[in-house]
Model the fold of this input.
Amino acid sequence: MIEDWIAWFPELLDGLQISLTVALASIVLGLVLGTLVALASVSGHRPVRWLSVALVEVLRGVPALVLIYLVYFGLPGVGLTLEAWTAAVLAIGVNTAAYMGEIIRAGLLHLPPGQSEAAQSLGLTRLQELRAVVLPQALRTVFPSLVSYSVIVFQATSLCYLIGVRELLSVGFSIGSVTFEYLSVLTLVGLIYVVVSIAGSRLAHAVEARSKQKTSIPRS
Done:
């Protein structure tokens, strides 16, 4: 079995690279859209808040696989055909935005009121305040949670196999269809997911520990 794993590993690494690429692109898209949703959810305009809350609830209620199918198979019905990789990133990114938006929203709500008052006393506009004071501090606060959720996004890339993206799981099935060693190859695929996921989780814990260390008050 070990000999087989060694032989399959280079091809599986190619699939892992695609999985990581899809995950990274989805995380970036989700972070950008999630930040906008979070800002809308704390807006002073009630209709904007309601709309953002409704959008988040809908997106969180729809499974990621349904979104992937909707984008890849549904959009061609209205004249918009996307490559499998692009459709996967768009669907997972939109799904990610709903969850990251809630994480960022929690960070915004937990900022001390004095931060905003200090920015206003310096004559900063609302946009300058958000860009220079509010968002950086909120993102710094919730960064460990964002990293933790990024592990879930990476695991969700396995769904892309169902629309033909040649990611890690897809490569594993391809090897299995040739060798009929499904148990062995899928065990190796699972171990690769475990290793990457644990590494991501450890990174999140390390970032959180370092963040707490920086914000702790030194004792005299």
